[in-house]
Amino acid sequence: MTEAGIEIANQLNTLARIEGDGFRAKVYFSPLNQRIQVLEYEARDTERMMASLARGAREAGFGKVFLKAPVHERGGFEAAGMTAEGTITGYFAGQPAVVMSLFLTDERRSRPFADEQDEILASIRSRSADASVPDLPAKYLMADATPADSLELALLYGRVFDSYPFPITEADYLVTTMKSNVVYRIVRDGLGEIVAAASAETDPEHRNAEMTDFATLRSQRGLGLAQHILAALEDDMVERGIPNLYTIARARSAGMNRVFYNRGYEWTGTLVNNCHIAGQFEDMHVWCKTLEIQAGRTLRYTKDL
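The chain above was modelled as a monomer; its predicted structure follows.
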């Protein structure tokens, strides 16, 4: 797609490649999230690239453009009007990335719940972390999700979220991601129903993974299921040789932020109005962790329990 053709992609969730004088990029247009996410780029002229993306975002009625860049490129993106919102430790095969965002409206930049979110974060970080994982309730089982689980898994996500940044409520989408580099874990209750799930979206080339898509039925909360799944996914990443983990957690969700804090993740920034989740735009906290990858390490979880 040429620079002039950006408007073609802004009507639907669309992956597109754009090119202009001095740059090219792979981008994701998301009307639900009202943003353009830059997935990959090469830019001799950073300001020209961002001007092109900003123009396309404004034409689509979007309020944000964001990307992950090597730390040494931060200054160039700031000169193009972007703001550094956080860092991801080890994102580029052990080297950090900085999350750069361009806000196109004052509304998208505003943070009406900032005080509440800051209090939640401060409360979590004031306590000692507890990485212990209690046993699953009797007759509950954890396993990898497979394509055969996709319909039930999609229904779980639909029950938990009023909206979500990506179409995880569609079984076909889940199957597609399962066949790529996404690892899903599920917990079934004593009746065999999926009651909790999460995933690790891996990037083997850069040896990182985003721990994401956490969902637990309201009736099952308080049982520590998210911590179980996170611990299992971490073991999966050890087996795959992927040490650099990160997540973005809803800033107003004390429970999920506490799960990551307890498992040894470090808070490294906040992405303002980053995505549309649970029916509204929300700020997202960034948390990072580096796993110790060593031969002979004892793992708590096997592939299927």
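Residues 225-240 form the longest helix (16 residues).
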